[in-house]
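User: Hi! I'm working on a homework problem where we have to compare a predicted structure to a textbook description. Could you give me the structure for the chain below?
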Amino acid sequence: MAIRIVTLVAASVLLGVSPDNLSGMRASVSIQIANGPVPVAGAFSADGRRFAIVRDDDSIVVRDSFGARRIQLEGFHRLPVSSRFSAVRHSIAFNAAGSKVLAGTYTTDGFLDHSGVVRARLYLFSVLQNRAQPSRYWNDVAMRSAAFSSDGTRLIVRSPELSDSPDTVLRIALRGGILEKWIPVNSLAPCNLSDGFQFSVPMSVRGGDDVILPGVACGKDVPGPVQLYNIPQRRALIAYQGSAGLAPVAIDADATTVRMIANGVLRFWGTQTGAPQGQSDVDVPMSESGKVIALRVGGTYAVVITMSSRAYPRSDPSYAITLYRTHDARAIARASGKGYVVAADIMSNGSVGVITDRAVDFRQR
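Assistant: Happy to help. Predicted C-alpha cells:
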C-alpha cells in the first residue's frame, strides 16, 4: 500500500460549510492511500494517536496517526470459504490504552438474504513492537464489535447481524476461554419474522458486563425502549424513557450518558437513571438514501457520520460529518468528504478521524 501523508494547516482549508451557519472543519492531516490493497475495516485508539486497518489482502497495519511508525501484525489469516455464495468479513478494535488489538475474521454462506456464519476466529495482538504475532486466538467467535472491560481482563464481543445466525453476546476471559454465551433475542421474546428469519438485534457495547440493546419491534408497530442489560444476570437494569427502535447508540467515556439518534435528532439520557437529558437543535443531515454509519463520543464532543446506504467500496461516495457539544447536544460544525467509510471516531480534543477506501483523514474545527 502506497501511503502519502499530507499535513494541512491553512485556516482557509474548510470542508463542507453548511448553509445553516454552522462552521466548517479544516483537514489537519490526510494519509492518502494511492494504490494497492483497500481498507475493509479500521479502528482508532482512544487518544487518536494510532489507527489500525485491515485490508482486502488480509494484511493488518497499525500506525501512528501523526508520525511514520508502523506495526505489521502477522499471523492473521482469512478463513476458507465454502461456496460461491460465501463472503469473508473482518473487524478490528483497540483496548483503552491502545496497546492491544482485537482482529476478527469470519465467513458467511447463503444466497440473497439467507446468510449465516460458517467459520470464525478472533485474534489478540500486543502492539508494542514493530512486528507482532497473535498472543492468543479463539475459534468460532465472530466479532462485529467488541469492548474490553475496564480492568482489561475480559472482553464483551457482539456477533454480526445475520438472518440465519442468532445474534450473540459473548464474555471472554483475556487469559482464558469463553465465560458466557448469550442470545439476547431469546431472552426478550421468541421473535421470528414471517419469512422465518430470526430477528436481528444490533447491540452497542459499553464494556464491563453490560450491553445496550435497542428495542425490539417483533412485528409490532411501535418497538420497545432501548435498555441496558447485565450479561451475567441476563436481565434489563434500565430502560431509556422515550427511546425506541434500532437507533445508533454511544456511551460517554465516563459511562454517565447514553446518546442515540432518534427521528433524525441526536438525543441523550442519563445512563443510570434512564431519564432524558436533552436533544440537539438541528437534524442529522441525511439524504433520501442515507444512513447513519457512526455515532461516537470523545471528551466534550460527539460526532455523527452519515453516508448513502447504496455506497460500496471504490464507488467514490460522499459522507457527511456533524460535530456536537456533549453537554447540550448543540451542533457546532459540519463537513463533508469523499470515500467509502470503514471506520470513524472522535478524539478528546474534538479532532475527527475517518478511515475510507482512499485515505485516513483527520479534521478539526
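For your comparison, note the following. Residues 1-36+247-365 form one domain. The first helix runs from residue 184 to 188. Good luck with the assignment!
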